[in-house]
Amino acid sequence: MGLIMGVAKELPLGASWPLYHKKSPLDAWIEDPTLPHYNHLVTISEASSPPTWFEKQRLRIEDPHLEWMVFIEHNYPDAIPGMGSAVFLHERYGEHTPTSGCVAMEKERLIELIRWISYDAKPKIVILSIPDYARLQIQWDLPPLHQAYPEAFLIVNQNKQ
Fold first, then answer.
1. Would you say 72 and 89 are in contact if contact means Cβ atoms under 8 Å apart?
2. How far apart are the C-alpha atoms of 92 and 72, rounded to whole Å?
3. Which of 31, 74, 79, 100 stands the most exposed, by the fewest C-beta atoms within 10 Å?
4. In whole angstroms, what is the distance from residue 136 CA to residue 154 CA?
5. Cis peptide before 123 (omega within 30 of 0)
6. Angle CA(19)–CA(111)–CA(102) in degrees, nearest 5?
7. 3-class state of residue 18 by DSSP
8. Of 127, 73, 132, residue with least CA distance to 104
9. Cα dihedral 120, 42, 71, 55 in deg (nearest 10)
10. Stretch 39-67: mean pLDDT, rounded?
11. Does the pLDDT value for residue 161 go beyond 50?
12. Is the pLDDT of residue 6 over 90?
Protein backbone atom coordinates (compact mmCIF):
# COMPACT_ATOMS: atom_id res chain seq x y z
CA MET A 1 0.00 0.00 0.00
CA GLY A 2 1.30 3.42 -0.84
CA LEU A 3 0.11 6.96 -1.30
CA ILE A 4 -3.16 8.03 0.28
CA MET A 5 -5.00 10.81 -1.50
CA GLY A 6 -7.91 12.85 -0.25
CA VAL A 7 -9.77 16.10 -0.65
CA ALA A 8 -9.13 17.13 2.96
CA LYS A 9 -6.12 19.18 3.98
CA GLU A 10 -4.81 16.25 6.00
CA LEU A 11 -5.51 12.63 6.86
CA PRO A 12 -8.43 11.76 9.15
CA LEU A 13 -7.79 12.46 12.82
CA GLY A 14 -5.77 9.62 14.31
CA ALA A 15 -4.12 8.54 11.05
CA SER A 16 -0.34 8.60 10.75
CA TRP A 17 0.40 7.40 7.19
CA PRO A 18 3.38 9.47 5.93
CA LEU A 19 2.46 9.47 2.22
CA TYR A 20 -0.49 11.85 1.83
CA HIS A 21 -1.45 13.98 -1.16
CA LYS A 22 -4.29 16.51 -1.07
CA LYS A 23 -6.03 16.13 -4.42
CA SER A 24 -6.40 19.18 -6.62
CA PRO A 25 -8.01 19.99 -9.98
CA LEU A 26 -4.50 19.78 -11.48
CA ASP A 27 -3.99 16.09 -10.60
CA ALA A 28 -4.21 13.13 -12.95
CA TRP A 29 -3.56 9.42 -12.54
CA ILE A 30 -2.15 8.14 -15.82
CA GLU A 31 -4.07 5.05 -16.95
CA ASP A 32 -3.31 5.32 -20.67
CA PRO A 33 -0.46 2.84 -21.33
CA THR A 34 0.80 4.92 -24.26
CA LEU A 35 1.57 7.93 -22.06
CA PRO A 36 4.72 8.61 -20.06
CA HIS A 37 4.22 8.20 -16.30
CA TYR A 38 1.78 5.30 -16.78
CA ASN A 39 0.28 4.27 -13.43
CA HIS A 40 1.64 7.32 -11.63
CA LEU A 41 0.22 10.53 -10.20
CA VAL A 42 0.95 13.59 -12.32
CA THR A 43 0.20 17.17 -11.33
CA ILE A 44 0.10 19.62 -14.23
CA SER A 45 1.35 23.16 -13.76
CA GLU A 46 -1.51 25.15 -15.29
CA ALA A 47 -5.25 24.57 -15.48
CA SER A 48 -5.57 27.10 -18.29
CA SER A 49 -3.56 25.06 -20.79
CA PRO A 50 -3.75 21.36 -19.85
CA PRO A 51 -2.21 18.69 -22.10
CA THR A 52 -4.60 17.02 -24.54
CA TRP A 53 -4.64 13.82 -22.45
CA PHE A 54 -5.50 15.55 -19.18
CA GLU A 55 -9.30 15.45 -19.23
CA LYS A 56 -9.42 11.67 -19.65
CA GLN A 57 -6.76 11.07 -16.98
CA ARG A 58 -7.68 13.67 -14.36
CA LEU A 59 -8.65 12.67 -10.83
CA ARG A 60 -12.36 13.11 -10.26
CA ILE A 61 -12.15 15.22 -7.10
CA GLU A 62 -15.84 16.12 -7.39
CA ASP A 63 -16.88 12.48 -6.86
CA PRO A 64 -17.77 12.11 -3.15
CA HIS A 65 -17.06 8.35 -3.26
CA LEU A 66 -13.44 9.16 -4.09
CA GLU A 67 -12.96 11.49 -1.12
CA TRP A 68 -10.30 9.06 0.17
CA MET A 69 -8.17 6.86 -2.09
CA VAL A 70 -5.49 4.46 -0.87
CA PHE A 71 -3.18 3.40 -3.68
CA ILE A 72 -2.56 -0.33 -3.94
CA GLU A 73 0.91 -0.51 -5.44
CA HIS A 74 0.05 -2.94 -8.22
CA ASN A 75 2.37 -2.68 -11.25
CA TYR A 76 4.28 0.07 -9.51
CA PRO A 77 6.74 1.85 -9.41
CA ASP A 78 8.22 0.39 -12.61
CA ALA A 79 4.88 0.10 -14.38
CA ILE A 80 4.65 -2.14 -17.43
CA PRO A 81 2.16 -0.63 -19.90
CA GLY A 82 -1.03 -2.64 -20.11
CA MET A 83 -0.41 -4.65 -16.92
CA GLY A 84 -2.86 -2.68 -14.79
CA SER A 85 -3.08 0.77 -13.30
CA ALA A 86 -4.97 2.92 -10.82
CA VAL A 87 -5.91 0.24 -8.31
CA PHE A 88 -7.21 1.96 -5.18
CA LEU A 89 -9.13 1.30 -2.00
CA HIS A 90 -12.00 3.77 -2.00
CA GLU A 91 -15.59 4.17 -0.85
CA ARG A 92 -18.09 1.91 -2.53
CA TYR A 93 -20.85 3.26 -4.75
CA GLY A 94 -23.38 0.76 -3.47
CA GLU A 95 -23.59 -2.62 -1.79
CA HIS A 96 -23.62 -4.52 -5.08
CA THR A 97 -21.99 -1.98 -7.41
CA PRO A 98 -18.77 -3.24 -9.01
CA THR A 99 -15.63 -1.19 -9.54
CA SER A 100 -13.30 -1.14 -12.53
CA GLY A 101 -10.60 -3.04 -10.66
CA CYS A 102 -10.44 -1.17 -7.37
CA VAL A 103 -11.39 -2.39 -3.91
CA ALA A 104 -14.42 -0.58 -2.54
CA MET A 105 -15.72 -0.51 1.01
CA GLU A 106 -18.07 1.47 3.24
CA LYS A 107 -16.76 4.96 3.95
CA GLU A 108 -16.66 4.36 7.72
CA ARG A 109 -14.54 1.22 7.27
CA LEU A 110 -12.22 2.99 4.83
CA ILE A 111 -11.59 5.81 7.31
CA GLU A 112 -11.14 3.25 10.09
CA LEU A 113 -8.59 1.43 7.92
CA ILE A 114 -6.71 4.68 7.16
CA ARG A 115 -6.48 5.34 10.89
CA TRP A 116 -5.43 1.76 11.67
CA ILE A 117 -2.73 0.96 9.09
CA SER A 118 0.85 1.46 10.07
CA TYR A 119 3.43 2.38 7.42
CA ASP A 120 6.25 0.88 9.49
CA ALA A 121 4.43 -2.47 9.57
CA LYS A 122 4.58 -2.62 5.74
CA PRO A 123 0.94 -3.69 5.31
CA LYS A 124 -0.05 -5.97 2.47
CA ILE A 125 -3.47 -6.46 0.97
CA VAL A 126 -4.68 -9.99 0.32
CA ILE A 127 -7.89 -10.43 -1.65
CA LEU A 128 -9.20 -13.97 -1.60
CA SER A 129 -12.49 -15.79 -1.54
CA ILE A 130 -13.34 -17.35 1.83
CA PRO A 131 -12.52 -20.89 0.57
CA ASP A 132 -9.16 -19.73 -0.83
CA TYR A 133 -8.37 -17.87 2.39
CA ALA A 134 -9.08 -21.01 4.41
CA ARG A 135 -6.94 -23.10 2.04
CA LEU A 136 -3.98 -20.68 2.13
CA GLN A 137 -4.22 -19.36 5.69
CA ILE A 138 -1.59 -21.68 7.20
CA GLN A 139 0.70 -21.76 4.14
CA TRP A 140 0.79 -17.96 3.90
CA ASP A 141 0.79 -17.45 7.68
CA LEU A 142 -2.38 -15.34 7.54
CA PRO A 143 -4.18 -14.36 10.73
CA PRO A 144 -7.59 -15.86 11.52
CA LEU A 145 -10.43 -14.39 9.52
CA HIS A 146 -11.93 -11.64 11.65
CA GLN A 147 -15.58 -12.17 12.52
CA ALA A 148 -16.36 -8.49 11.91
CA TYR A 149 -15.51 -8.92 8.23
CA PRO A 150 -17.70 -11.77 6.97
CA GLU A 151 -17.04 -10.76 3.38
CA ALA A 152 -13.44 -11.91 3.95
CA PHE A 153 -11.86 -8.48 3.65
CA LEU A 154 -8.77 -8.33 5.78
CA ILE A 155 -5.66 -6.22 5.67
CA VAL A 156 -2.69 -7.68 7.42
CA ASN A 157 -0.96 -4.95 9.41
CA GLN A 158 2.05 -6.72 10.80
CA ASN A 159 5.73 -6.68 10.13
CA LYS A 160 6.18 -10.00 8.31
CA GLN A 161 8.25 -10.53 5.20
1. yes
2. 16
3. 100
4. 14
5. no
6. 75
7. coil
8. 127
9. 160
10. 93
11. no
12. yes
